[in-house]
Automatic annotation (TrEMBL):
Endpoints of the signal sequence: none
Keyword Ribonucleoprotein: no
Organism in which the protein naturally occurs: Apteryx mantelli
Keywords: Cell membrane, Membrane, Olfaction, Sensory transduction, Transducer, Transmembrane, Transmembrane helix
Subcellular compartments: Cell membrane
Main location as per UniProt: membrane
Listed PANTHER family: OLFACTORY RECEPTOR
Protein name: Olfactory receptor 10K2-like
Encoding gene (name): LOC136996445
Length: 316
């Protein structure tokens, strides 16, 4: 019995979504449906890119990796959140909290760096079309993905170690629905200014540096598009970037609001709402944006559906 109480004392308690039971059940149904749609849309994008030879290009290779990251990203957060919506005690162990934060940061940071790689791909395709195929080879694309993953791994390892090496209060109540950096730091018994400064610096590295590279890429892209003589050509060039730009605005907008601000302005209610946006809505909207705004993906999807219908008729 004493061992059980000691184990429970090391748990973190989530206070996010501490609404009346009826509202929690409604949220469970809504978030479950959104999660299932997210899984199905991302899986569809990955499958279509994999099976359709016309989509075996660098842009769609990066899109496939992005869909994979977002599928894993939601898996780290949403299933536990759904369980907690129906549970009376919304708790997670010390180790479980550390693991959740580690994978959340790893996948989220990799996502940031991958968006920068996708921006570079668009820069090469529009500004240097004659050299595009020679530069953006399969090997280079894989190297960019590996570099994004290793950068995310390094940042996640550093931040998670810094946070969970701190002593924590006996009452570990997090005003959140998962183990994010700010809520966990707020229940640390004594976190130093140094640890806060290191975490903030790493967040700048993860968000501002990739975003700056993307903005520089799009500045050159804009100049290149304006030089295209025909309106149709300019429209076609810009259409290949619109989905990526939308994904960049959603990802960096939400993440910057959460992580690039002073600790004094922390608001648990605001953060919970924004966190729902980038943990549930963004992974849901990204594949829809890429599929709805992309002619190649829509064509490949229609082709796959027609092929599936024909095979069903032959089977019957």
């Amino acid at each position: 019995m004493e061992n059980d109480s000691q184990t429970l004392a090391t748990d973190f308690i989530f206070l996010g979504f501490s609404n009346p039971a009826e509202l929690q059940k409604l949220l469970f149904v809504v978030f479950l449906l959104l999660y299932l749609v997210t899984l199905s849309t991302n899986t569809t994008i990955m499958t279509i890119i994999r099976v359709d030879p016309s989509l075996h290009t660098p842009m769609y290779f990066f899109l496939c990796v992005l869909s994979f990251l977002e599928t894993c990203y939601t898996f780290v957060i949403v299933p536990k959140m759904l369980v907690d919506l129906l549970a009376e005690r919304k708790a997670i162990s010390f180790l479980g909290c550390a693991v959740q934060m580690y994978f959340f940061l790893f996948l989220g940071c990799s996502h940031s760096f991958l968006l920068a790689a996708m921006g570079y791909d668009r820069f090469m395709a529009i500004c240097h079309p004659l050299h595009y195929n020679n530069i953006m080879t399969r090997r280079v694309c894989v190297q960019l993905v590996v570099a994004s993953a290793l950068s995310g791994l390094l940042v996640a390892q550093t931040i998670t170690t810094l946070v969970f090496c701190l002593p924590f209060q006996a009452s570990r109540k997090l005003n959140h629905f998962f183990c994010d950096i700010a809520p966990v730091l707020r229940v640390a018994f004594a976190h130093t200014n140094l640890s806060e400064a290191v975490v903030f610096t790493l967040c700048i590295f993860v968000l501002l540096i990739p975003l700056t590279l993307i903005l520089i890429s799009y500045l050159f892209i804009l100049f290149a598009i304006l030089k295209i003589p025909s309106a149709t050509g300019r429209r076609k060039a810009f259409s290949t970037c619109s989905a990526h730009l939308t994904a960049v605005i959603m990802h960096y907008g939400c993440a910057s609001f959460i992580y690039l601000r002073p600790n004094a302005s922390y608001s648990s209610d605001q953060d919970a709402v924004i966190s729902v946006a980038y943990t549930i809505l963004t992974p849901l909207l990204n594949p829809m944006i890429y599929s709805l705004w992309n002619k190649d993906v829509k064509t490949a999807l229609q082709k796959a559906l027609r092929k599936n219908r024909l095979s069903q008729k032959d089977f019957q």
